[in-house]
Hints:
The chain is 76% helix and 0% strand. The chain is mainly α. Helix 3 (39-48) runs antiparallel to helix 9 (130-158) and helix 11 (189-204) runs antiparallel to helix 12. The longest helix has 29 residues, at 130-158.
Amino acid sequence: MSTHKEFIRGLVAAIPIMISFIPFSLVLGAQAIQRGMATGEISLMVAMNFAGGSEFVAVNLWTSPPHLLLLAFMTLLVNSRHILMGAALTPYLQGLPKKKVLLALFFMCDESWAMSFADAKKSTNQRFNYHYYIGASLGLYLTWVIFTTIGALVGPLIGDVTHYGFDMAFVAVFLVLLKGMWKGVVAAIPWLVSLIVAVVSYLILPGAWYVLCGAIAGLIVAFIMAHYD
């Protein structure tokens, strides 16, 4: 299949997730305005930092003037999972021009990353398809930036959109992604350990340390299980 068709295939495959992005990007835009951010500021933030979890944290920590060091640190903490995701993606990007590698890493998010690995798993040669990944990633990126901006513009008119339950779409998307990556109960043990550690950390530690604690715990268990396999 041509690169153009692979790009379109990735874009089309991402449409359900693009639709699911709409409600919680609207929530993010509306919350940003309620916290005192300008429309241009939230639009620039989501365009430069394509990672929804850290953006919700940044918006909730936003003050005027903003505590930039705190925002940068919390963003780094929440986005720390991208280090592991990038490491898993890197072997599939070897041999590509540097500009294509940087483009792939810039657009990397949980959803496009999971979609592309699920697509590789289903293919006959277990091959990661770069153009499928870019098609899916670009569609998700544009949806996120455009509808966050719309949320910032209409947020003052409709009030607190979380009252409508739109923010639950965030959780629903991740549950669907986990289903697509399901390999059985044993393979899910690192997920379970990561979940338990993250919940416990959330209850006893301030801030977003639970993200890093959960990720590291899951990684350690996965490493131990791989050693004994």
